[in-house]
Specification:
3-stranded antiparallel β-sheet, transcription regulation, coiled coil, DNA binding
């Protein structure tokens, strides 16, 4: 149920104008971060960008790092490392759940 509680964070529902209001960033800045492959909005059939609340959080983090003088290439490397770590953790959790289920079913057959 916890994943359902956070599913709204990842739904791409906000237009760029709303994201600008929430973050204080300009459309130009947001598009630049997209060009630098730091953010990945969804596109509608008409080509409009849609963002999620987690995208807004990422944009704020990116903007803060840029203000601190960190280059976009460094930010991208950090984001990739974080994504890899999350993937590894997710895989490990899936494997543990599988092992627990196997042990549970093995024990209930006896």
């Amino acid at each position: 149920m916890a994943s359902q509680d956070h599913s709204y964070l990842h739904k791409k529902v906000m237009p760029i104008g709303t994201v600008c209001e929430l973050t204080g960033l300009s459309e130009r800045q947001i598009r630049y971060y997209e060009e630098r492959k730091l953010i990945f909005p969804q596109r509608t059939d008409k080509g409009n960008r849609k963002y999620s609340f987690s995208d807004v959080e990422s944009l704020m983090e990116i903007a803060n790092k840029m203000e601190d003088g960190i280059q976009t290439a460094e930010i991208r490397k950090e984001l990739l490392k974080r994504k890899e770590k999350n993937s590894e953790e997710s895989l490990r959790n899936t494997m543990i759940k599988g092992q627990l289920n196997a042990q549970f079913h093995k024990g209930s057959i006896r």
